Amino acid sequence: MLSIEFLVALLLLGAVVGFFAGLFGIGGGGIMVPILSSLFLWQSLPLDQVIHLALGTSMACIIMTAIASLRAHHARAAVHWPIVRMMTPGVLIGTFAGAFFASILSTQYLALFFTLFMAFIALQMFCSKPSQSKKTTQHELSVHAVSLSIGSLSALVAIGGGSLTVPYLLWRHIDIKAAIGTSAAVGLPIAVAGACGYLITGWNVETGQAGVFGYIYLPAVIAISLVSSLTAPLGVRAAHSLPTALLKKLFAVCLLLLSLRMLTTVL
Known about the structure:
This protein is mostly helical. The protein has one domain. It is built from ten helices and two strands; from the N terminus they run ααααααααββαα. The protein has helices at about 5-25, 30-40, 50-75, 80-105, 105-125, 140-155, 160-170, 175-200, 220-240, 245-265; strands at about 210-215, 215. A two-stranded antiparallel ribbon has the order 1-2. The radius of gyration is 17 Å and the shape is globular. The two termini are about 30 Å apart.
């Protein structure tokens, strides 16, 4: 049975993840994975499985967050559906393959890769400037290749792909608000494929913890998703009114500190 403290921590995590998912068009894995890793260690789950469980649980949580976020963006006509349809096959295949690859990596290597990747994302967000590219079209094969890469990396670090998809869409000279909304929509197939991948690869792994299916901790998914689906629309509303440039810099620093904290904890 979940302790009150653990449940409250999960609900608070869901509130934060949902808001930032709506605000930046991200899945929230950059926040969830480090915090869930610490929470799972607090619950005395095996050290060599906490990162895998955090990754799989985060991917499952992103499903509901992505649905709430994309619905809110769609209501504001901020989703470019033709691009979503074009990117979906690539991200599905890439994410599923990435989840299988993550399952064979050790906790230490996953933690190191996650930290380095988040440092790159944080630097990208901190220094990002509006795209000056005039490119508006691209060969469909190139789109599939990019989508495959986005899906693979997203599975390895349990993100909805927003930190990769948004810059790519800006490079294609898509408006920032449409890029965020479209990224939220692309995050749904990423989350579904990633959750299925971690469910399958961890199915025969014994954790000794009730409520764990594969590499997904179901009680955490339910608690986080319930709250994140409520706060994601608030983030979408804030994206259309708050100074997102400043918020992105603050968020970047937060991601870096959280990932460094996770790395030091695991090592």
